[in-house]
Amino acid sequence: MEIVVHHWDADGVSSAAILMRERGRMPVFTPPVGEFKFDPRIESGVYSSKLAYFVDLNMPGDVFRLAERGLLRKAYFIDHHIQEPISHDRIIYHNPLSRGEVYPSASFVVSELFNHSSYLTVLGAVGDVGERLFEMERFGELAEKILEEEGVGVEEVLEAVRLVDSNYITLDRYGVEEAALFLSEAELDDVLERVEWIEKAKEVKEDIERAVNSARVNGGVAFVSFYSPNAIISKVARELVWSGKASVCVAVNRGFNGKYQLYVRLNRGDKRCRELIESLRKLGINAGGKEEVVGSVFEADEERLERALEEVRRIFGFEVELAE
Ligand SMILES: [Mn+2]
Hints:
Layout: E1 2-6, H1 10-23, E2 28-29, H2 40-47, E3 51-55, H3 60-68, E4 75-78, E5 91-94, H4 106-113, H5 119-129, H6 139-150, H7 154-169, H8 173-183, H9 188-192, H10 195-213, E6 216-218, E7 221-226, H11 233-242, E8 248-256, E9 259-266, H12 272-282, E10 286-289, E11 293-299, H13 302-316
Parallel strand pairs: 1-2, 1-3, 3-4, 4-5, 7-8
Antiparallel strand pairs: 6-7, 8-9, 9-11, 10-11
Manganese (II) ion binds at residues 11, 56, 80, 105-106, 128.
């Protein structure tokens, strides 16, 4: 038996679906949404398979450890993230970045590997990089050509990303896995017409809008505090910054299923983001991010939130006041 383990976003789902179109249906696994770790369910799936594919899943260390623990017979690791390459005799490592080539998505990597071309190739990439895909050298043209062949428009693909991503945003892990199976057989119209996804995405959209509309902007800094069980905080901050309403956004979600989230987004890279990540980690907060983004999550605790915000004030030098 072969299995696939994939990232929960539109790129991961599309990549798994492409794989199944080429290799046949197989058991599908995604890690618990938002947690980059393998649970016993995935471990036993991997253990009982003769070949496991890991796609769009930036967890090379964890896959290596599965092999070291003797839980893995053979694996393909297919990705496009910046990472330490895996070297192990049971793992075939495939990431174009290791030869210096930047790919917009794992869906493009998987498509190339299996000589596949469909709307799924583009869906994954639009999920990861948005419409910027069409400005990318080589991939922009390639994407346009695929859409033309398939008779599909960009707007439709953007909508499909929203629908597919509504599964992980509502933390619906099994919905994510089912989505990969669904896409392995569905045409784009089937995706766009799927009522459960349309309803889910509508709820998510309203949730995001509520939060965005409650933001207070002061001197270019947007501050927003909301309560939501959904993983929308990055989209809320992105919307506030990318729309030009603010150059910085500090967002707090106090309703994240017993946890708090604190998120900071800037409109450009800034080395203070790294500094904030380090100081949040010193507070025992699970934090990560990129040059322009800091995301964090911790047990619901007002005192810890206040200490975290103190670090934001100290490092960035702007006032953030918590509204009740
Ligand atoms: Mn990806």
